[in-house]
Amino acid sequence: MSHLNIEAFRAINDLGKNNSFLDHIAVFFAEYMLYFLILGMVVYWFTRKDKNRMMIILAMISVVVAEVLGKIAGKFYSHFQPFAVLPHVNKLINHAIDNSFPSDHSIIFFSICFLFLLVRKKEGWLWILLACLVAVSRVMVGVHYPVDILTGALIGIISALIVYWIAPKLSFLNKLLAFYEKIEESILPRSKSGNKHKNF
């Protein structure tokens, strides 16, 4: 473990020691923002707009790709969580002791949120901001080093780019979405103004 990584961890993790209200914010972002992300994906899906639905499909594929890459990275390098190794860590949440490299939360948030940015640039930056806040919060609560979240973020971004670039070549995704929407239409008909299926 590099001295710089540990020093960066201490600087971020110690923020709450002098500002206790930051602890509560960090715990909220570290523990509950995943539910907000899932809710956001559900809302996008049920707008029943083809662009949003294809974005969600690609985001899910991006997560799978990122998780596979993350597991591979974890085979080449590993270390336990800071609270399990370092003294006087400001540990704010319960967490099992296992390999903390790379950060799963960073992988999930950046693989999804960066895909959102590529598809919906206007509000995409807000999703990236959310991903960054979650990543920092995982250090503040004592369960990850900065290198864990940076590596997870990089893996997530690379995965999102790969999926976004190859998506136009995967015509079966459009066919799959069209098939789903045909079934959905028979159960919950859209209004006449509803948009028809278009390629992503």
From TrEMBL:
UniProt-listed InterPro entries:
PAP2/HPO (IPR000326), PAP2/HPO_sf (IPR036938), UPP_Pase (IPR033879)
The residue ranges of the Phosphatidic acid phosphatase type 2/haloperoxidase domain are: 59-164
**CDD domains this protein is in?**
PAP2_BcrC_like
What keyword terms does UniProt attach to this protein?
Answer: Membrane, Transmembrane, Transmembrane helix
Which residue ranges run through the membrane?
25-47, 54-73, 101-119, 126-143, 149-167
* UniProt keyword annotation of Transferase present: no
Is Membrane included in the keywords of this UniProt record?
yes
What protein is this chain from?
A: Undecaprenyl-diphosphatase
